[in-house]
Specification:
240 residues; mainly alpha; 11 helices; 74% helix; 0% strand
Length: 240
């Protein structure tokens, strides 16, 4: 029984980040000095919060920038966890002001899941359920919310079946994410892995080639450092 509990916990820890990972909030075009520039961006946003009435859109900007900061710039684990937690709180504040803000639901979910990944797996099941709830709500509000669709696909792909994992539903979410916006290249990598397991090598290669040759990928910082190299590696593995 102890082994089963450990295995489930380990799968949960993986699933929290499997579909979310840095796919969530990084910038499309890197400004000069990125990611160091994130610190100044964060200070500017916090100043705006202090000086005026917080709006849901501003709070979502704060939440997404905290996510960027933790993903791309901070290296200390404690500081990264605190940034994710602050991002989750900012998104939660936005939702108190406007529960119909799909981006707020999404950024609450990804910050919450990322903080949990660093903190441990004590409350992993509860966090996964909250992430799923927020993701589904974001999609309900905006059926073409590609980031939320990608997140849901990644979660359902990585979770064990007894905790709600479902490869068929994961594929549906990922296909919807790509149809909504094909420049989210992490979704293409995830679905390529599903296609590969199904023996659909041609379809898998097509998705990976689209990652490698993406003209304007979202999250360019992550695409250059993670997604493109991963797609190239997977293509090499599938070569005859």
């Amino acid at each position: 029984m102890k082994t089963v509990r450990w295995t489930v916990g380990f799968c949960l820890a993986l699933s929290l980040f499997g579909g979310v990972d840095p796919t969530s909030a990084q910038r499309d075009d890197m400004p000069p000095g990125y990611p160091q520039s994130l610190e100044a961006d964060m200070q500017s946003l916090l100043t705006r919060l202090r000086e005026g009435q917080p709006s849901p859109d501003l709070l979502v900007q704060v939440s997404s920038t905290y996510f960027d900061l933790a993903d791309d710039w901070l290296t200390d684990e404690k500081q990264r966890r605190e940034a994710y937690q602050a991002g989750a709180k900012a998104a939660e504040h936005a939702l108190r002001l406007d529960d119909t803000n799909a981006d707020a639901h999404f950024f609450h979910a990804v910050n919450l899941g990322s903080a949990e990944r660093l903190q441990g797996i004590t409350s992993a099941a509860m966090v996964v359920n909250e992430m799923k709830r927020c993701g589904m709500r974001a999609i309900e509000l905006n059926p073409k919310h590609a980031q939320a669709l990608q997140m849901m696909g990644g979660l359902l792909m990585e979770l064990p079946w007894l905790l709600g994992g479902d490869a068929k539903k994961a594929q549906e979410y990922l296909e919807r994410a790509i149809a909504a916006d094909g420049n989210y290249t992490k979704a293409r990598i995830l679905i390529a892995k599903l296609y590969r397991k199904q023996g659909k090598i041609g379809e898998a290669r097509q998705q990976l080639e689209a990652v490698v040759h993406a003209n304007r990928p979202h999250y360019r910082y992550a695409w250059e450092r993670q997604y493109k190299p991963e797609a190239e590696r997977l293509l090499r593995e599938m070569s005859p």
